[in-house]
Design goal:
267 residues, 4-stranded mixed beta sheet, 9 helices, alpha/beta, Cytidine Deaminase, domain 2, 27% strand, Ubiquitin-like (UB roll), 2 domains, 6-stranded mixed beta sheet
Length: 267
Amino acid sequence: MPVRRIGRPAHGEREDTVAVEEPLEVRLHGQAFATIMRTPGDDKDLAAGFLLSEGVISSADDLGAVEHCRHPHHPEYHNIVDVFLTRAAREGMDQQLRERRNVPATSSCGLCGRLTIESLERRLAPLGCAWTIDAAVAGALPESLRAQQRLFDETGGLHAAGLFTLAGDAIGFAEDVGRHNAVDKVIGRMLLASRVPLHDTVLAVSGRTSFEIVQKAWIAGLVVICAVSAPSSLAIDLASAGGITLLGFVRGGGFNIYTHADRVRAV
Protein backbone atom coordinates (compact mmCIF):
# COMPACT_ATOMS: atom_id res chain seq x y z
CA MET A 1 0.00 0.00 0.00
CA PRO A 2 1.18 3.60 -0.57
CA VAL A 3 2.82 5.38 2.37
CA ARG A 4 4.69 8.63 2.85
CA ARG A 5 7.96 8.40 4.77
CA ILE A 6 9.27 11.38 6.70
CA GLY A 7 12.77 11.81 8.06
CA ARG A 8 14.09 8.48 6.73
CA PRO A 9 16.48 7.57 3.91
CA ALA A 10 13.59 6.62 1.60
CA HIS A 11 11.91 10.00 2.15
CA GLY A 12 8.67 10.61 0.22
CA GLU A 13 6.04 8.41 -1.43
CA ARG A 14 6.66 4.69 -1.73
CA GLU A 15 4.92 1.32 -1.62
CA ASP A 16 5.02 -0.58 1.64
CA THR A 17 4.15 -4.18 2.51
CA VAL A 18 1.96 -4.60 5.58
CA ALA A 19 0.91 -7.63 7.60
CA VAL A 20 -2.56 -8.91 6.71
CA GLU A 21 -5.12 -9.34 9.49
CA GLU A 22 -8.51 -10.91 8.69
CA PRO A 23 -11.17 -12.75 10.72
CA LEU A 24 -11.31 -16.54 10.64
CA GLU A 25 -14.63 -18.04 11.67
CA VAL A 26 -14.26 -21.49 13.22
CA ARG A 27 -17.41 -23.58 12.94
CA LEU A 28 -18.29 -26.91 14.54
CA HIS A 29 -20.51 -28.97 12.25
CA GLY A 30 -21.64 -25.79 10.51
CA GLN A 31 -22.36 -23.86 13.72
CA ALA A 32 -20.34 -20.77 14.59
CA PHE A 33 -17.98 -21.38 17.53
CA ALA A 34 -15.36 -18.61 17.48
CA THR A 35 -13.95 -15.80 15.37
CA ILE A 36 -10.17 -15.40 15.43
CA MET A 37 -8.35 -12.36 14.07
CA ARG A 38 -5.32 -13.81 12.28
CA THR A 39 -2.94 -13.62 9.35
CA PRO A 40 -4.40 -15.83 6.57
CA GLY A 41 -2.55 -19.07 5.96
CA ASP A 42 -2.30 -22.37 7.84
CA ASP A 43 -5.95 -21.93 8.79
CA LYS A 44 -6.63 -25.63 9.33
CA ASP A 45 -3.59 -25.85 11.61
CA LEU A 46 -4.79 -22.77 13.50
CA ALA A 47 -8.30 -24.18 13.96
CA ALA A 48 -6.96 -27.53 15.19
CA GLY A 49 -4.51 -25.94 17.63
CA PHE A 50 -7.14 -23.50 18.88
CA LEU A 51 -9.68 -26.26 19.55
CA LEU A 52 -7.03 -28.26 21.41
CA SER A 53 -6.23 -25.34 23.70
CA GLU A 54 -9.95 -24.65 24.21
CA GLY A 55 -10.53 -28.19 25.41
CA VAL A 56 -12.93 -29.00 22.57
CA ILE A 57 -10.64 -31.82 21.45
CA SER A 58 -7.95 -33.77 23.27
CA SER A 59 -6.19 -35.53 20.39
CA ALA A 60 -6.15 -35.89 16.61
CA ASP A 61 -8.57 -38.80 16.98
CA ASP A 62 -11.30 -36.30 17.92
CA LEU A 63 -11.08 -34.66 14.49
CA GLY A 64 -13.15 -36.08 11.68
CA ALA A 65 -12.46 -33.34 9.12
CA VAL A 66 -11.16 -29.76 9.04
CA GLU A 67 -12.27 -28.01 5.87
CA HIS A 68 -12.42 -24.54 4.34
CA CYS A 69 -15.93 -23.59 3.26
CA ARG A 70 -16.26 -23.21 -0.50
CA HIS A 71 -18.90 -21.31 -2.47
CA PRO A 72 -18.60 -19.96 -6.03
CA HIS A 73 -20.57 -16.80 -5.20
CA HIS A 74 -19.11 -16.07 -1.76
CA PRO A 75 -15.33 -15.56 -1.94
CA GLU A 76 -15.32 -14.48 1.72
CA TYR A 77 -15.89 -18.13 2.66
CA HIS A 78 -12.14 -18.68 2.49
CA ASN A 79 -12.21 -17.11 5.97
CA ILE A 80 -14.39 -19.92 7.35
CA VAL A 81 -13.14 -23.30 8.56
CA ASP A 82 -15.68 -25.99 9.45
CA VAL A 83 -14.53 -28.69 11.85
CA PHE A 84 -16.29 -32.03 12.22
CA LEU A 85 -15.75 -33.90 15.47
CA THR A 86 -15.84 -37.56 16.42
CA ARG A 87 -16.07 -39.63 19.59
CA ALA A 88 -16.58 -37.86 22.92
CA ALA A 89 -15.75 -34.50 21.37
CA ARG A 90 -18.85 -34.78 19.18
CA GLU A 91 -20.97 -35.72 22.18
CA GLY A 92 -19.77 -32.67 24.09
CA MET A 93 -20.09 -30.24 21.18
CA ASP A 94 -23.51 -28.84 22.11
CA GLN A 95 -22.29 -27.92 25.58
CA GLN A 96 -19.16 -26.30 24.10
CA LEU A 97 -21.33 -24.20 21.80
CA ARG A 98 -23.58 -23.13 24.70
CA GLU A 99 -20.68 -22.19 26.94
CA ARG A 100 -18.67 -20.33 24.31
CA ARG A 101 -18.87 -16.59 24.76
CA ASN A 102 -20.00 -14.83 21.62
CA VAL A 103 -16.93 -12.60 21.36
CA PRO A 104 -14.03 -12.64 18.92
CA ALA A 105 -10.53 -13.57 20.00
CA THR A 106 -8.41 -10.67 18.80
CA SER A 107 -4.89 -11.04 17.49
CA SER A 108 -3.57 -9.70 20.82
CA CYS A 109 -5.77 -11.15 23.56
CA GLY A 110 -5.80 -14.88 22.88
CA LEU A 111 -8.29 -16.68 25.10
CA CYS A 112 -8.79 -13.57 27.25
CA GLY A 113 -8.31 -15.51 30.48
CA ARG A 114 -11.14 -17.99 29.92
CA LEU A 115 -9.17 -20.67 31.77
CA THR A 116 -7.54 -20.26 35.19
CA ILE A 117 -4.50 -21.90 36.73
CA GLU A 118 -6.81 -23.81 39.07
CA SER A 119 -8.94 -25.18 36.23
CA LEU A 120 -5.85 -26.25 34.29
CA GLU A 121 -4.41 -27.99 37.36
CA ARG A 122 -7.65 -29.97 37.69
CA ARG A 123 -7.54 -30.91 34.03
CA LEU A 124 -3.82 -31.58 33.49
CA ALA A 125 -0.99 -33.19 35.43
CA PRO A 126 2.30 -31.25 35.72
CA LEU A 127 4.71 -32.14 32.95
CA GLY A 128 7.79 -34.16 33.75
CA CYS A 129 10.70 -35.39 31.67
CA ALA A 130 14.03 -37.13 32.12
CA TRP A 131 15.99 -35.06 29.63
CA THR A 132 17.85 -31.74 29.83
CA ILE A 133 18.68 -29.19 27.15
CA ASP A 134 22.11 -27.68 26.63
CA ALA A 135 22.21 -23.98 27.53
CA ALA A 136 24.01 -23.17 24.26
CA VAL A 137 21.25 -24.87 22.23
CA ALA A 138 18.49 -23.04 24.12
CA GLY A 139 20.26 -19.72 23.74
CA ALA A 140 20.51 -20.10 19.98
CA LEU A 141 16.84 -20.94 19.33
CA PRO A 142 15.48 -17.38 18.89
CA GLU A 143 18.18 -16.70 16.31
CA SER A 144 17.17 -19.86 14.46
CA LEU A 145 13.54 -18.76 14.70
CA ARG A 146 14.33 -15.28 13.40
CA ALA A 147 16.13 -16.73 10.37
CA GLN A 148 12.85 -18.29 9.21
CA GLN A 149 10.70 -15.15 9.52
CA ARG A 150 10.35 -14.34 5.84
CA LEU A 151 7.06 -12.44 6.24
CA PHE A 152 8.46 -10.42 9.14
CA ASP A 153 11.32 -9.34 6.86
CA GLU A 154 8.73 -8.00 4.42
CA THR A 155 6.30 -6.38 6.87
CA GLY A 156 7.97 -5.96 10.27
CA GLY A 157 4.60 -6.81 11.81
CA LEU A 158 4.41 -10.54 12.46
CA HIS A 159 5.20 -12.79 15.39
CA ALA A 160 6.60 -16.30 15.08
CA ALA A 161 6.56 -19.63 16.87
CA GLY A 162 8.84 -22.57 16.20
CA LEU A 163 9.27 -26.12 17.42
CA PHE A 164 12.77 -27.53 17.80
CA THR A 165 14.42 -30.78 18.76
CA LEU A 166 16.69 -30.95 21.81
CA ALA A 167 19.62 -30.59 19.40
CA GLY A 168 18.18 -27.32 18.04
CA ASP A 169 16.85 -28.64 14.72
CA ALA A 170 13.66 -26.95 13.48
CA ILE A 171 10.63 -29.20 13.00
CA GLY A 172 7.81 -26.64 12.75
CA PHE A 173 7.35 -22.91 12.16
CA ALA A 174 4.50 -20.40 11.80
CA GLU A 175 4.02 -16.63 11.56
CA ASP A 176 0.96 -14.55 12.48
CA VAL A 177 -0.03 -11.10 13.70
CA GLY A 178 -0.82 -12.77 17.03
CA ARG A 179 1.78 -14.62 19.09
CA HIS A 180 -0.78 -17.12 20.35
CA ASN A 181 -2.09 -17.69 16.82
CA ALA A 182 1.41 -18.60 15.67
CA VAL A 183 1.63 -21.06 18.58
CA ASP A 184 -1.76 -22.56 17.71
CA LYS A 185 -0.71 -22.93 14.07
CA VAL A 186 2.52 -24.76 14.80
CA ILE A 187 0.94 -26.99 17.46
CA GLY A 188 -2.08 -27.63 15.26
CA ARG A 189 0.17 -28.78 12.42
CA MET A 190 1.74 -31.35 14.74
CA LEU A 191 -1.70 -32.36 16.02
CA LEU A 192 -2.99 -33.04 12.51
CA ALA A 193 0.11 -35.17 11.95
CA SER A 194 -0.70 -37.11 15.16
CA ARG A 195 2.52 -35.88 16.82
CA VAL A 196 0.97 -34.40 19.98
CA PRO A 197 1.93 -34.57 22.86
CA LEU A 198 5.26 -32.93 22.09
CA HIS A 199 7.25 -34.09 25.10
CA ASP A 200 10.67 -34.10 23.39
CA THR A 201 10.21 -30.73 21.70
CA VAL A 202 11.06 -27.13 22.63
CA LEU A 203 8.85 -24.13 21.82
CA ALA A 204 10.48 -20.83 20.81
CA VAL A 205 8.43 -17.65 20.46
CA SER A 206 9.14 -14.11 19.39
CA GLY A 207 8.15 -11.36 21.79
CA ARG A 208 6.91 -11.89 25.33
CA THR A 209 5.35 -14.96 26.94
CA SER A 210 1.75 -14.61 28.11
CA PHE A 211 -0.46 -16.85 30.21
CA GLU A 212 -2.16 -18.14 27.05
CA ILE A 213 1.09 -19.25 25.42
CA VAL A 214 2.13 -21.22 28.50
CA GLN A 215 -1.36 -22.73 28.64
CA LYS A 216 -1.12 -23.91 25.03
CA ALA A 217 2.34 -25.34 25.67
CA TRP A 218 1.13 -27.26 28.74
CA ILE A 219 -1.84 -28.75 26.87
CA ALA A 220 0.44 -29.79 23.99
CA GLY A 221 2.99 -31.38 26.35
CA LEU A 222 5.77 -28.87 25.66
CA VAL A 223 8.18 -28.83 28.59
CA VAL A 224 10.47 -25.91 27.62
CA ILE A 225 9.55 -22.45 26.30
CA CYS A 226 12.19 -20.00 25.01
CA ALA A 227 11.06 -16.40 24.48
CA VAL A 228 12.87 -13.37 23.11
CA SER A 229 11.25 -11.03 25.66
CA ALA A 230 9.83 -11.12 29.17
CA PRO A 231 7.16 -13.40 30.58
CA SER A 232 4.20 -12.03 32.50
CA SER A 233 3.80 -12.83 36.21
CA LEU A 234 0.83 -15.08 35.47
CA ALA A 235 2.82 -16.92 32.78
CA ILE A 236 5.52 -17.63 35.37
CA ASP A 237 2.95 -18.87 37.88
CA LEU A 238 1.37 -21.17 35.30
CA ALA A 239 4.74 -22.50 34.09
CA SER A 240 5.66 -23.29 37.67
CA ALA A 241 2.39 -25.13 38.26
CA GLY A 242 2.61 -26.96 34.95
CA GLY A 243 6.16 -28.24 35.30
CA ILE A 244 7.34 -26.09 32.37
CA THR A 245 10.83 -24.60 32.12
CA LEU A 246 10.35 -20.98 31.09
CA LEU A 247 13.20 -18.97 29.58
CA GLY A 248 12.95 -15.25 28.89
CA PHE A 249 15.14 -12.55 27.32
CA VAL A 250 16.85 -15.25 25.24
CA ARG A 251 19.27 -13.06 23.32
CA GLY A 252 22.91 -13.26 22.34
CA GLY A 253 23.27 -16.70 23.85
CA GLY A 254 22.11 -15.64 27.32
CA PHE A 255 18.74 -15.82 29.07
CA ASN A 256 16.83 -15.80 32.34
CA ILE A 257 15.39 -19.04 33.73
CA TYR A 258 12.15 -18.37 35.61
CA THR A 259 10.94 -21.88 36.44
CA HIS A 260 12.29 -25.44 36.67
CA ALA A 261 15.91 -24.52 36.00
CA ASP A 262 17.09 -28.10 36.46
CA ARG A 263 16.22 -28.91 32.83
CA VAL A 264 18.86 -26.51 31.46
CA ARG A 265 22.33 -28.02 31.32
CA ALA A 266 25.05 -25.40 31.64
CA VAL A 267 28.39 -26.02 29.93
